[in-house]
């Protein structure tokens, strides 16, 4: 992270904004922090200065659920958006990532994990709570694979071929940020934490079909 990084905390609860600001100042001391308590405040800040990271509560006054996230990602595609929310069910997390969030941090998250999550996003990675990754792992391997959309399955196969993110985005005609959100959803559904684990899981399925498929046919 460079000294030029700007972070907006968009939340209508003053005490939470203060606590989050203290945490950020402690662990990301070079960052410039800005605060917004409503969507109009946020829109004004975004017009005034380039921002590197937005920490957004979906319930901030003036927000329209996921439409706010969708609109912000469309207007500012280079800005990372991390959702920080008191709603932390798997469906909400999944939808947030599908709509372009770079991460999802439940408000109940420990400070150490918040720091880890924000650091991961600054390093160009995606972040979702570990327990949501583990929820996918509870399903049988074939069920996990069947839960992928055709587009997500295609991306998984491209992972297996060793293609880089930019290559995958180009070949599929996607923005790289959109490809990243697909990747995060794939990891969530498969119950893995990164593309390496996803490819290992895919290889296990392929090997299983190779071992048992032909014998079933004979």
Describe it for me?
- By secondary structure, this protein is α/β, with parallel strands linked by helices.
- Helix content is about 60%, strand content about 10%.
- It has 11 helices and 5 strands; from the N terminus they run βαβαβαβαβααααααα.
- The protein has a 5-stranded parallel sheet with strand order 2-1-3-4-5, sandwiched between helices.
- Helix 6 packs across helix 10 (about 175-190).
- The longest helix has 23 residues, at about 195-215.
- The protein is globular and about 55 Å long.
- The termini are far apart.
Describe the biggest sheet? 5 strands, parallel
C-alpha Rg, in Å? 19 Å
Structural class, from helix and strand content?
Answer: alpha/beta
Q: Bin the helical content.
A: 55-70%
Strand order of the largest sheet: 2-1-3-4-5
Proportion of strand residues: 5-15%
Q: Detail the poorly predicted runs.
A: 210-218
Beta-strand segment tally = 5
Order of helices and strands: EHEHEHEHEHHHHHHH
The separation of the N and C termini measures 59 Å
Mean pLDDT: 82
Keywords summarizing the entry:
218 residues, alpha/beta, 11 helices, 58% helix, globular, disordered C terminus
């Amino acid at each position: 992270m460079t000294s030029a990084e700007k972070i907006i905390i968009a939340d209508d609860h003053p005490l939470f904004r203060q606590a989050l600001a203290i945490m950020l100042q402690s662990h990301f001391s070079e960052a410039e922090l800005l605060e917004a308590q409503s969507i109009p405040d946020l829109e004004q800040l975004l017009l005034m200065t380039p921002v590197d990271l937005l920490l957004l509560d979906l319930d901030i006054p003036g927000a329209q659920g996921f439409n706010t996230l969708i609109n912000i990602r469309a207007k500012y595609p280079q800005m990372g958006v991390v959702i920080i929310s008191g709603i932390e069910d798997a469906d909400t997390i999944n939808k947030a990532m599908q709509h372009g969030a770079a991460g999802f941090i439940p408000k109940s998250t420990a400070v150490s994990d918040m720091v880890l999550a924000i650091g991961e996003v600054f390093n160009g990675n995606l972040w979702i709570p570990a327990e949501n990754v583990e929820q996918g792992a509870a399903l049988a391997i074939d069920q996990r694979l069947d839960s992928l959309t055709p587009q997500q399955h295609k991306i998984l196969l491209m992972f297996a071929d060793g293609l880089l993110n930019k290559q995958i985005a180009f070949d599929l005609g996607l923005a790289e940020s959109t490809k990243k959100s697909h990747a995060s959803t794939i990891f969530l559904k498969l119950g893995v934490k990164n593309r390496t684990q996803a490819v290992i899981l895919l290889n296990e399925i392929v090997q299983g079909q190779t071992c048992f498929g032909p014998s079933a046919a004979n």
